[in-house]
From TrEMBL:
Residues 159-254 form the M23ase beta-sheet core domain. This is M23 family metallopeptidase. It comes from Pricia antarctica. PANTHER family: MUREIN HYDROLASE ACTIVATOR ENVC, PEPTIDASE-RELATED. GO terms for molecular function: metalloendopeptidase activity. SUPFAM superfamilies: Duplicated hybrid motif (SSF51261).
Amino acid sequence: MNYFGTTTFWLKKMRAANRKRPAVSGKKNLAYLLFLILISLFYVLRHDISVSREPLLDTQTAMEGYGESLRMNMVSILPDTTVISKEREQLLTAIEERIVTYLYQIPDYSYINSLKTYLRLRPELLEQFPSAVPLEKGDYFVSSSYGIRSHPISGKSKKHFGIDMAAPLGKPVYASASGIVLDIVRSKKGYGTHIIIKHRFGFRTLYGHLSKILVSEGQNVEQHELIGTVGSTGSSTGHHLHYEILKNEIQIDPMSSLDLKKTIYTHLIELKPDNDGRE
Ligand SMILES: [Zn+2]
């Protein structure tokens, strides 16, 4: 049979099959289509889950490698500055190609270590995720850390999802990174009067037991912007700020975030004693 013969033969066969098909076949086709879509979705999701886990380790290894090369580059004593600056630019580009994905993927602050050298060259990135202290130096002391503790009111052993920063009533509370005010809650229980701010890279911060709120929902805030004042609203036994950091919806220990910005900037000031600290 030639080409036309074959086509006509199959067309006839298909038309005959269509005539024979009862009305219910439309529903069957739809069910089959839905089944195919579900199967495809399952594979896409499964693939997504597996790829989002694998590259975190890969990216971390790569970031550590680039970070170390960058550190070596910065302390290099080679006389050829063109080669050194060219290599530095290449390393910065390689880091910048991956850093957004990396910051979205990391589950906590332990992964930031590999970025410390990069952050010394690009410290402005620290404004976009929690890296500053939400209270003024000298106003507070950490009265309760993150993790399992005996609850101050019930006495039961319970996980504390943030840190408590004891401070006098009315002391200013600042946003620890730039972001958008996601939620303002006024409650007599739990966190009492509190603010939740959404930041870049899947970070959120929560400021609890406030006496006053000085921002509104949907408002954009800068890092260090005044957002409220210390109080003792909700389940609280004294004036303090309950400070929480959530990464990809999960509460993490905020302690290592408190020194992050200070560490980077202190290092920069030490490197340039004639500089006033501003980059
Ligand atoms: Zn607390």
